[in-house]
């Protein structure tokens, strides 16, 4: 027998607020475990605007939602659970990006981009990524410490990598990283958020315009060439796509690099195990991805038809947040989920990269960057350690992508 929310209950009893704060950076918010056990499909109110949404917390249910065509990614649909302040006027002028498209538009654009991120293509990129990592570690070591690992290594590596792939001049990184960080912040006003998006789009508009007449050996130029033969996007679509890839291509991996290093430094037995056996590194990365699941609230959807999930009926027009951090701590899939285990056989079943047609295209690239960064640090900086107590670190509880603001280290 299915159940549906009683509309009157929204005024009779307030829902818990979302997002929920992580008590420990290496785990999920405490509320998630209780929700999985007692009410795996439950109601919450969005902190940003007070509107109701559904939270889905079990692994199988999150996969169901992310794989269901009745759960739309279109952020312009009424009921979509926005995670940032956005006015109705601004929303009316938003151009959908790949992450917020449904088929067939999504299918057409993704098909053109997939060849850029195949395992073979990423393998060809690995020597250059290694060069970038070595250059950054050389600079870090010459500074003699302590240094902030975020600005010295974690942010520059994926930022420079995605710049070279897209054909974005890296000398402009300070500007677009500032705009990107602003766009990730839950607490910005609609005006501040809109200004950051507009600034980045203006910058990318000029870049795409240049590449339309003077193409280079880069992803944007190759997309433009394919698009001339089979038009699936106009100029503004290409600018929006470039914004998504530039922001997504460095924000997530940068935060994951820093958090992964912190996890290793805070778990010295695991660090010693990796140093003794580098073959553990690929599975260790999957486990770190599972534990952190840094884009927890990025899998937002809105029902376009009634959907039954976990015995609960979600009505058409209602928002859904399929929480991958909650799913990745589901005890029925990951025994003792709060324990970091580099031998965990089921680690790769995590949903940190999403699931279904919107699964992260850059997963192969992110894994390569993480493997090269962690492996090189293990080899070249054996004395790496925190320069401040872990309790003093500031975490991104206010951001769409979880991370640490600074990570002071020495050696």
TrEMBL record:
CDD domains, alphabetized: CYP105-like
Keywords recorded for this protein, A-Z: Heme, Iron, Metal-binding, Monooxygenase, Oxidoreductase
Keyword ATP-binding included in the entry's annotation: no
Residue numbers spanned by region Disordered: 1-28
Keyword Metal-binding: yes
Compositional bias annotation for Polar residues: 1-14
SUPFAM superfamilies reported in the protein's UniProt record: Cytochrome P450
TM segment ranges: none
InterPro entries: Cyt_P450 (IPR001128), Cyt_P450_B (IPR002397), Cyt_P450_CS (IPR017972), Cyt_P450_sf (IPR036396)
Molecular-function GO terms, alphabetical: oxidoreductase activity
Signal sequence interval, chain numbering: none
Similarity annotation: Belongs to the cytochrome P450 family.
PANTHER family, alphabetized: CYTOCHROME P450 YJIB-RELATED (PTHR46696:SF1), P450, PUTATIVE (EUROFUNG)-RELATED (PTHR46696)
UniProt name for this protein: Cytochrome P450
Origin species: Streptomyces flavovirens
